[in-house]
Automatic annotation (TrEMBL):
Signal peptide: none
GO biological process per UniProt: cobalamin biosynthetic process
UniProt keyword terms in alphabetical order: ATP-binding, Cobalamin biosynthesis, Nucleotide-binding, Transferase
GO molecular function: ATP binding; corrinoid adenosyltransferase activity
Enzyme class, spelled out: transferase
Name of the protein in its database record: Corrinoid adenosyltransferase
Annotated family: Belongs to the Cob(I)alamin adenosyltransferase family.
Species per Swiss-Prot/TrEMBL record: Candidatus Magasanikbacteria bacterium GW2011_GWA2_46_17
PANTHER family: CORRINOID ADENOSYLTRANSFERASE, CORRINOID ADENOSYLTRANSFERASE MMAB
Length: 195
């Protein structure tokens, strides 16, 4: 199967169920923002250490992140983002698909991770500059994209009803990404710079 279909050459594409829409419709705007968020999280994962086939972890001060499962947790978030994109696409279709949706349980999982990570960090008393390590900087970037998804979702919800769990998920996801960025930087010994 070829990667290019040429069916979108005139500025339209298909949503779930085959409905044709303009590529500038609000549903595709939200889906595109989610796709960018997913890719930005993928960049952070790419900089985290991974285990070799023999199970040995490369020498790295970030080995703790791998041991704590941050890469696999971030990849589970990436999979969740595909679920949200499918749901947004389905909201404009007459055809309803049976796919897993994001629920308040997903939100609670994010809250649990935020609480665990925050326990290890110094109290935040001022705004900090986004940055630090490469992973930390990518996680901060992902946080800002998550906020943009949240804003696009609000605009979309003025036209089509959106489940409250989706708003909660992106609000909490940006909090998790912020906390994860701080934790990665803290574990690397990178001092937070005051804004």
């Amino acid at each position: 199967m070829k990667i290019y279909t040429k069916t979108g050459d005139n500025g339209e594409t298909s949503l779930l169920g085959g409905k044709r829409v303009s590529k500038d419709c609000i549903a595709l705007e939200v889906i595109g923002e989610i796709d960018e968020l997913n890719s930005t999280i993928g960049e952070a994962v790419a900089y985290l250490p991974t285990y070799g086939r023999d199970g040995a972890c490369p020498v790295s001060t970030m080995a703790k992140e791998e041991a704590d499962g941050l890469p696999s947790f971030l990849q589970s978030i990436q999979r969740d983002l595909f679920k949200v994109g499918a749901e947004i696409a389905s909201l404009q279709s007459e055809v309803k698909s049976n796919f897993e949706i994001i629920t308040e349980e997903h939100v609670k999982t994010l809250e649990k991770m935020i609480d665990e990570y925050a326990e290890e960090l110094p109290e935040l008393k001022q705004f900090i500059l986004p940055g630090g390590t490469k992973v930390g900087a990518h996680l901060h970037h992902a946080r800002t994209v998550s906020r943009r998804v949240e804003r696009a979702l609000v605009v979309f919800s003025k036209k089509i009803k959106v489940r409250p769990a989706l708003f909660m998920y992106f609000n909490r996801l940006s909090d998790f990404l912020f906390t994860a960025a701080r934790r990665v930087n803290w574990n690397e010994g990178v001092e937070e710079m005051k804004a």
